[in-house]
Amino acid sequence: MLLLHPPVAKPCEPPGGIARLAGFLRGHGLPCTVADLNIEGMLFLLHRPTAPTGAWSRRACRGIIANLAALRSPQLYATPDRYRRAVADVNRVLALAGQNRRIGLSLANYQDPDLSPLKSADLIQAAAHPEASVFFPFFATRLPQLLEESQPALVGFSLNYLSQALCTFAMVGLLKQLYPGLPIVLGGGLVTSWLRNPGWRNPFAGLIDHLVAGPGEAVLLDLLDVKVAAQHQPADYTFLRDNSYLAPGFILPYAASAGCYWNQCSFCPEKAEDNPYVQVPAARALDDIHGLVASTRPTLLHLLDNAISPALMRALVARPPGVDWYGFARVSPLLMDTDFCQALRQSGCVMLKLGLESGDQGVLDAMRKGIDLTMVSETLAALKQAGIATYVYLLFGTPAESIDEARSTLQYVVDHKVAITFLNLAVFNMPICGAEADSMAKRDFYAADLSLYTDFEHPRGWDRQAVRRFLDQEFKRHPAVAAILRRDPPLFTSNHAPFFRK
């Protein structure tokens, strides 16, 4: 089996999904090769810069080797201004690589003005003309090399983000041209969202042999005609450990669960797609983590769970992983306990991402978040006291919100500015297959058959344009908010934020 992680995604850590699949396959005695074509492809382009014009472009191209080395050095992260310049310059070189093909290319995104990842016809077009991809000079050589080395029975692509879709289909198209009989399997978060849509009709017959929703371990074994012998195997980073990721050391991703243990929030994609909650027992997860830490010697552990369970938090306190770690957590009574937060910090927790969504209690209740603002305030205070950074996520434009509630959120942030380290601001998207969408007057959000979201008539007139105007002209301009937003690492955001917590 050959498992591939395609461009474009943030190139700071290895892909946890295909590492998990690799461990499962090898645990069943099956040979498996894994390649992160995202970091490989980016470095290919970065080391072959386009002839630059303009002072910034020339400076960025001259300094590319030094800037890549700096992003892999802890010293750079002690000086935020130098870090921002290095990221901007590296991103500039990557953007230059896309200009000749009119591609908007960055360290975090891939945009083609003529093709949309939301349209199946455009993805099929990308497959029909792989030579149009900005990454074609890289994968036209790399894919045949991998096929010759591994001689796989199947090739699997992990497609998680819209920014990966066009590149994925370009590579699929090349493989179909060169190896027409080789089965192609497509899985990952984005594919799962496609297949969970009740209106899904497969437009990729004849191009993609197998589409997989959710965890792919059992499906792959079935395709390889092998019986499942063990339900759980630890991830395997053998083929990924030595990639030159853009981070000050190896970041180890690990998922102790799929889905969300709360799973009650309105408008949540996990709930809309009816993704089940599946958890690795905490003791087994800690065994996995300790083994992976010993074999990969990471600088940082990234827990990928939608929400780290209280059981896993307690297990991390009881058996610290021996390395700094961070991840998403729900506000809960456990995190209101100052002693527990101190123990959490001693276990290595350096940052928690918190999905607050709103600073208005009525909005939280309408969203069925299951938290109140007193809990949030006490949690923020306890984490601050323990020295744990917070990355707080806010969501504007939900059906229960108007500008009045949005201003309540602004005031809440201002009141708690000393305990909020980083902020993520998002405009609400209505999941197209969510139950709540049926009660709203809908209209096309994107005129495309693979859209995951739908536009709607806001019951309080708080449309997307008004939300964006509020964010740009009022929310972001408040001095307290502006100071927090300035801390956010550009492009890498929460993935690099743990290195800036002090």
Q: Name the CATH class of the largest domain.
A: Alpha Beta
Helical fraction equals: 40-55%
Oligomer classification:
single chain
Cα(first) to Cα(last) distance is 43 Å
Rounded mean pLDDT score: 93
- Based on the coordinates given, report the CATH architecture of the largest domain: Alpha-Beta Horseshoe
Whole-angstrom Rg: 23 Å
How much beta, percentage-wise?
Answer: 5-15%
- Could you describe the largest sheet, including whether it forms a barrel? 6 strands, parallel
CATH superfamily of the largest domain: tm_1862 like domain
Low-confidence stretches: none
Which strand order spans the largest sheet, edge to edge or round the barrel? 8-11-12-13-14-15
Helix run count: 20
- Structural classification: alpha/beta
Shape descriptor reads: globular
How would you summarize this macromolecular structure in one to three sentences?
This protein has 502 residues and is an alpha/beta fold.
Secondary-structure blueprint of this entry?
Layout: E1 2-5, H1 16-27, E2 33-36, H2 37-46, H3 55-62, H4 64-71, H5 80-99, E3 104-105, E4 110-111, H6 120-128, H7 136-150, E5 155-158, H8 162-178, E6 184-187, H9 189-196, E7 210-211, H10 217-223, E8 251-254, E9 257-258, H11 269-272, E10 278-279, H12 282-296, E11 300-303, H13 310-318, E12 324-329, H14 333-336, H15 338-346, E13 349-357, H16 361-366, H17 373-386, E14 389-396, H18 403-415, E15 422-427, E16 430-431, E17 442-443, E18 453-456, H19 464-475, H20 479-485
Parallel strand pairs: 1-2, 1-5, 5-6, 6-7, 8-11, 11-12, 12-13, 13-14, 14-15
Antiparallel strand pairs: 3-4, 9-10, 16-18, 17-18
Helix pairs in contact: 3-5, 4-5, 6-8, 7-8, 12-13, 13-15, 15-17
